[in-house]
Amino acid sequence: MKKYGLKIFFKSVVAGEVFFEESVVSLTANDFDGAYEKAQSYANDRLDKYLNIYGETVEESVFDIVDCFEVFDEETDGVQEIYSCYKKNRTDMPEQAFVDFLSDGCTEEELLPLLSMEFNEKREKPDKV
């Protein structure tokens, strides 16, 4: 068995808003095909459909599984690389704007529609400005 890492993109849709979650998982498998199969099974088991804190339905799906790579047990000074991916700027964006775009996550306020009512208090949805 070998150790693999895979990047999984999940998609959540709520009230017409679309959110993408990027998740990197580590698993063991005999080969790359086995790693993809295990990742797909994990991703499917993780999917949910639930009510958010505003009483709206959040529906999750697997968008894509990408970047399967073998994880080697090499450590340098107590550090082990578990994920690496090169990106090429194929846009007209300046370098800093491109890096900012790649690393821009949701704010706490933007994530509110994904909070499950099961674990959080129900709230009134604020008016959009």
Structure notes:
This protein has one domain (2-71, 85-114). Helices cover 19% and strands 33% of the residues. The protein has 2 helices and 4 strands. The protein has helices at 32-46, 95-103, and strands spanning 2-14, 17-29, 49-51, 57-70. Strand 1 (2-14) and strand 2 (17-29) form a beta hairpin.
Tally of strands:
4
| Rounded mean pLDDT score | 91
Which word captures the global form?
globular
Which value, in Å, is the CA radius of gyration? 18 Å
Given the structure, what is the number of helices?
2
Largest sheet: 4 strands, antiparallel
Side by side, the strands of the main sheet go 2-1-4-3
Bin the helical content: 10-25%
What proportion strand? Answer: 25-35%
How many angstroms separate the termini? 53 Å
The structure class reads: alpha+beta
Helix and strand sequence: EEHEEH
- How many independent structural domains? 1
Which residues form runs of ≥5 with pLDDT under 50? none
Indicate the topology.
Elements: E1 2-14, E2 17-29, H1 32-46, E3 49-51, E4 57-70, H2 95-103
Antiparallel strand pairs: 1-2, 1-4, 3-4
Observed structural traits:
33% strand, 129 residues, alpha+beta
Write a short abstract of this structure.
The chain is an alpha+beta fold and 129 residues long.
